[in-house]
Design a protein that fits this description.
It is built from no helices and 16 strands. It is mainly β and 197 residues long. The strands form 2 sheets. Strands 1, 3, 4, 6, 10, 12, 13, 14 and 16 form a 9-stranded antiparallel sheet that branches. The chain has a 7-stranded antiparallel sheet with strand order 2-5-15-7-8-9-11, with no helix packed on it. The N terminus is likely disordered.
């Protein structure tokens, strides 16, 4: 029997199940491709290789959306990634914290250009005004991303260092959307959303 999410309960996703749970994850968009090329969670990791069958000459993308259990108040969202600096391919991964009507509050984008290191930057939300936004070049394979919201103030941290600040609303977070472009491989180790005091 499936129990619905509790309001304000958040979630902890360790990618330890055999597949992405349809109760928590769903493919919300596939444009000019057949979806996201990922391996089923293995040893607590979700390996994404990019897009499935992108159409040549088209700007292909696909998105997964994760139920955020209508988490409200002050929150911290965190994600642990493994990103190989020597990986071939180009592409990007963008996570957006979204309210119930699909408006982005704040997001983060991880970008890989061929033969270049991975770069992280904040993504402006519909309901957020960016106050500062710097790019962070990733030099280590493991990366921890965090978005912290206290009242209407937002911070984006990369490996504990703030690179982006914003001011926005305090709407309930209904979902987190991951948009994938290109074919740069990435490994997701954990993702968590929780309330903070």
């Amino acid at each position: 029997m499936f129990a619905g999410p509790l309001f304000g309960s958040g979630f902890s996703e360790n990618f330890s199940d055999k597949d992405l749970s349809p109760q928590s994850w769903m493919l919300t968009l596939a444009e000019h491709c057949q979806g996201i090329d990922y391996r089923k969670p293995l040893d607590g990791k979700l390996a994404i290789n990019g897009l499935l069958a992108p159409q040549p000459g088209k700007k292909a993308s696909a998105a997964l959306e994760r139920d955020a259990c209508f988490t409200d108040g002050d929150i911290i969202w965190s994600l642990v990634l493994e990103l190989d600096p020597a990986a071939a391919g180009s592409g990007s991964y963008t996570w957006r914290l979204q309210s119930d009507n699909g408006e982005t509050q704040l997001g983060v984008k991880v970008i890989k250009d061929k033969n270049q290191p991975w770069v992280v930057q904040g993504v402006n939300g519909f309901t957020c005004k960016l106050l500062s936004n710097q790019k962070a070049v990733l030099e280590q394979k493991q990366c921890k991303l965090e978005i912290i919201r206290r009242k209407a103030d937002y911070q984006l941290l990369v490996n504990g260092q703030c690179i982006c600040t914003a001011n926005g609303d305090t709407d309930t977070i209904a979902s987190i959307q991951l948009t994938v472009l290109g074919n740069a491989p990435a490994v997701l180790k954990a993702m968590e959303l929780k309330n903070i005091k």
